[in-house]
């Protein structure tokens, strides 16, 4: 995993610091990063604060 200080950019693979699925950071808005991920064949999405995410390499 990458260091928490790395800047997240659109298209990066991220994960919640607490764990969970790998997600793709799509865009950043006032409420945080909009991310998408798959749960089996279902496409899910959510918005997360940047400080709750780590960049995966």
Short description:
The chain is mainly β.
In terms of topology, how is this protein built?
Elements: E1 13-16, E2 23-29, E3 32-39, E4 42-48, E5 53-56
Keywords:
single chain, about 55 residues, mainly beta, five-stranded antiparallel beta sheet, 5 strands, globular, disordered N terminus
Taken together, the total number of domains comes to 1
Query: What is the β-strand count?
Result: 5
Structural class: mainly beta
Poorly predicted segments: 1-5
Folded structure, characterized:
This protein is mainly β. It has one domain. The protein is 0% helix and 53% strand. It has a five-stranded antiparallel beta sheet, with no helix packed on it. The protein starts with 12 loop residues before the first strand and ends with a strand. The N terminus is likely disordered.
